[in-house]
């Protein structure tokens, strides 16, 4: 068995012609199975896949890490290519999600209705629990919030009948991919918190060692003290490699690079991680 992970959407693109956008998407190829984790915001997915020689038409499974537009906006373009694709997500992805910036509310939720998605051939499967996507690939389901300094953002909100309330982002989930060299944890935006997520993966799988931790860590939103606390907790896990994208930012990325040395990688659009049989 071999696993190949290709970053298709990220805030940063490091090669000529590839499009960087605020968002994240990664393709997991496990032998002949193709699973897409997130879709970016809909700017670069198809363009980047074409340029990278990635065939999107064979994708049979999509997993959405949560309902924000920068992870779900590429869904239409994808479904128009694939048809008949199953989409696994937490039921809260369709909540009307907003961000407050300078006192102004901006809609940042999924830009499509459930009916539209189904009309494009998307078969939605909702679960709050961990779900097997394919042999060796599971979602984490909703992640319990156990670490006091992780998660929570007063400026991320859900519109309800009683007005705007803080979005608990219970829809935030990650993906765990078993490989011959150990588990790979793929993070979308890690709103639940990096440590909360890894702690939950440990509870789910019984493993606290990971071959790769990859994706959006959300650490870009943490100040230096909180970042130090996360990195302190990170030392309790055995992590062979860490690859950061999206909401990590340069400051947290540099701090992690200092911590991890050669085991750190900045994962931009076009990055390919291959974990083979040997
Ligand atoms: Fe998000
Ligand atoms: Fe995000």
Descriptive account of the structure:
The chain is α/β, with parallel strands linked by helices and 278 residues long. The chain contains seven helices and 18 strands. A seven-stranded mixed beta sheet has the order 8-5-4-3-2-1-18. Strands 9-10-13-14-15-16-17 form a seven-stranded mixed beta sheet, with helices on one face. Strands 7-6-11-12 form a four-stranded antiparallel beta sheet, with no helix packed on it. Bound molecules: fe (ii) ion (FE2) (2 copies).
Question: In brief, what are we looking at here?
Answer:
With 278 residues, this protein is α/β, with parallel strands linked by helices. Helices cover 22% and strands 32% of the residues.
In DSSP terms, counting alpha (H) and pi (I) runs of 4 or more, how many helices?
A: 7
Q: How do the strands line up in the largest sheet?
A: 8-5-4-3-2-1-18
Give the C-alpha Rg: 17 Å
Backbone structural class: alpha/beta
């Amino acid at each position: 068995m071999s696993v190949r992970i290709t970053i298709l959407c990220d805030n940063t693109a490091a090669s000529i012609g590839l499009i960087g956008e605020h968002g994240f998407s990664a393709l997991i190829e496990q032998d002949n199975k193709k699973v897409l984790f997130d879709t970016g915001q809909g700017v670069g997915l198809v363009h980047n896949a074409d340029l990278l020689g990635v065939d999107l038409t064979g994708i049979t499974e999509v997993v959405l890490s949560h309902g924000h537009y920068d992870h779900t906006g590429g869904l239409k373009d994808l479904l128009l290519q694939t048809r008949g694709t199953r989409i696994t997500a937490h039921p809260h992805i369709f909540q009307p999600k907003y961000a407050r910036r300078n006192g102004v509310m901006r809609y940042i939720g999924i830009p499509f209705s459930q009916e539209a998605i189904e009309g494009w051939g998307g078969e939605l499967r909702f679960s709050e629990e961990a779900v097997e996507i394919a042999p060796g690939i599971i979602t984490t389901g909703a992640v319990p919030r156990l670490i006091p300094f992780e998660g929570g953002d007063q400026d991320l909100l859900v519109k309800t009948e009683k007005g705007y309330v803080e979005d608990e982002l219970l829809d935030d989930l990650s993906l765990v991919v078993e490989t011959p060299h150990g588990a790979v944890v793929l993070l979308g935006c890690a709103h639940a918190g990096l440590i909360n997520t890894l702690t939950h993966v440990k509870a789910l799988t019984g493993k606290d060692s990971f071959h790769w931790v990859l994706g959006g860590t959300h650490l870009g939103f943490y100040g230096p003290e909180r970042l130090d606390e996360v990195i302190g907790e990170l030392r309790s896990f055995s992590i062979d490699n860490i690859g950061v994208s999206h909401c990590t930012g340069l400051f947290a990325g540099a701090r992690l690079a200092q911590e991890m040395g050669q085991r750190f990688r900045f994962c931009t659009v076009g990055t390919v991680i291959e974990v083979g049989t040997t």
